[in-house]
Amino acid sequence: MLTMEKFINKVSVKSSLSALGWDQKKLADVLGVSGQAVTNWMKGEDFPRPNKLLKLATTLGLSFDELVIQSAKQPIVAFRKKGGSITTDEHLLNASSMGSLLKSLVKFLPESNALRTQIQSPSLEYEKLQAAAAEVRSRIGIGSQAVLEYLQLINEFDTNGAVIIPVMWGNKQNHGNALHILLPEEKATFIYLNLDTHLEDFKFWMAHELAHVYTPDLAGTDEGEDYADAFAGALLFPKDIAIEVYSKCVSISNKQHEIAIMRRYANTHEISLYSVYCEVIKYANALKLPPLKVTNKDIHAIRNSVRGSLVSHALFAPSQPDASSYIAASHAVFKSNFFNSLKIMLKDFHTGSGYVQQLLDISLKDATALHKELVS
Question: What's the pTM value of the predicted model, to 2 decimals?
Answer without folding.
Answer: 0.80
